[in-house]
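INTERNAL AUDIT FORM
Audit reference: QA-55
Scope: verify that the stored structure record matches its stored sequence.
Auditor: D.O.
Record contents follow.
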Amino acid sequence: MADAVERPRKAGNGEDSVYWDKSKNRYIGAVSLGYRPDGKRLRVKVSGKTKTEVRRRLRDRKKELEAGVKSSATYTVSEAVDDWLAQGLKGRELSSVGTYRSLATCHIKPELGRAKLRELEADVLDEWLDAKAKVLASQSLDMVHSVLRRSIAHAQRRGKVLPNVADFVEVPDGRPGRPSKSLTLQQAENVLRAQEGSWIHAYVVLSLLVGVRTEEARALRWEHVHTEATADLPSYVDVWRSVRRSGDTKTRKSRRSLAMPHQAAAVMVEQREKQQAEYVEQGREWTERELVFPNEVGGLRSALNVRRNFRRLLKVAGFAKPHEWTTRELRTSTVSLLSDHGIPIEVIARVVGHSGTNTTERVYRKQLRPVIADGAEAMDDIFGRATEEGTASPRSPR
């Protein structure tokens, strides 16, 4: 009796099966992992140009399944980013969400969006980041990488991918960003005299002489502005709120009460009297709950509206290129003017609401001088020199 022809043994559960599919012109790898709770066979298939590639993909899929990952061969980077933007940013500021969405739309989706997340490799990300480093500043490049990394982490938490490939790459240095500027003493004096009597003048005076953030000034209400000085207490402003969704200031140490220089207190008195007069003229009741710098309908002003009005003021003040300045640079000017006058960096950090001195010194301060004085008193001293040179003396607060 002739020997029986030995047939290939059928792969058992958990064993790999690799075969050539002529119709697809590729090798197909399959592994049976038993049955689902509904009785259907749990069978995983992958494909590749070589048997080695197929076996590697099978090993990866089995690792994912053992870790509880249910990745999809069609789940893309674009879908992962969209899911994170929709589900992973709950409670975040709308402005922050808008920034992340813009970065994803402009820099991630056009070049990586179609890539299958499961197949995304570190080498691809390295090349992508190197290309982006030629067009983006370092801070923007870090943010773009962060959006991608957090999007993949969001997919990880939902079992859609096993490794976070964005963790395996180093972010290169990008292009130098636009350095922040600081007003010189002469420029600051010109700014403080421009458009006197307007709300933007009062806004600039408060921001420059006291050091509040634009988000804090926009949310400021009259109940937190104390212009009446006493023998024991100077005029001061409570910087307790901001336009952030929670209403809180940026950090715990940002919540502070700051003495106002005489000029700032006098201007705030004028701003309050002007607003009260407008309310009387309109037949409305004014209360201390009103915003100090409201928009035309009494609500919060947008950052864009403040920036536009600030640049108009700079034009009146004689600036050749007002479009190159932002309201944030009023704070850098506050820090630089105080530092130039000799105020300790620790005092300046407390005035502007920094949790430590590192940011104050690294980002905001433009000059270094010996230690001699303190915040509001220094501003009176700095701009008091203008009075000695013939400029009209600011009115004392009532």
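Auditor finding: record pair retrieved intact. The first helix runs from residue 51 to 66.
Action required: none
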